[in-house]
């Protein structure tokens, strides 16, 4: 978590910054918390949302998963949370 926090804060200082996309699985409260984190902590106004994203659950479950070492050394990490 410490490494992830440092990477996010470092990225937020770069010219390209950090962006975030929320999804249909978020509650209103979760979307608000996500927005406050991205704007308040990371200092980014690059936000969007995909409501009714239509992602096929079978497809998502079939995607290969990374090891901890692969995730830690990746240039980009995409996190999908299914509730």
Blueprint (SSEs and pairs):
Layout: H1 2-12, E1 19-23, H2 28-41, E2 46-50, H3 57-62, H4 68-73
Task: Give a description of the structure.
The protein has about 80 residues and is an alpha+beta fold. About 45% of the residues lie in helices and about 10% in strands. It has a two-stranded parallel sheet with strand order 1-2. Helix 2 (about 30-40) links the parallel strand 1 (about 20-25) and strand 2 (about 45-50). It is flat, with a radius of gyration of 14 Å. About 0% of the residues are buried. The mean pLDDT is about 75.
Which descriptors apply to this entry?
83 residues, alpha+beta, two-stranded parallel sheet, 2 strands, 45% helix
Tell me the total number of β-strands: 2
Gyration radius from CA atoms, angstroms:
14 Å
Q: What does the largest sheet look like?
A: 2 strands, parallel
SSE ordering: HEHEHH
Large-scale geometry: flat
Can you give the helix content as a percent range? 40-55%
């Amino acid at each position: 978590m410490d490494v992830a926090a440092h990477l996010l804060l470092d990225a937020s200082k770069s010219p390209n910054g950090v962006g975030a996309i929320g999804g249909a699985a978020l509650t209103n409260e979760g979307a608000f918390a996500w927005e406050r984190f991205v704007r308040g902590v990371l200092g980014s106004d690059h936000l969007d949302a995909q409501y009714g994203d239509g992602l096929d659950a079978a497809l998502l479950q079939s995607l290969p998963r990374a090891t901890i070492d692969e995730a830690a050394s990746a240039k980009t990490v995409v996190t999908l949370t299914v509730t």
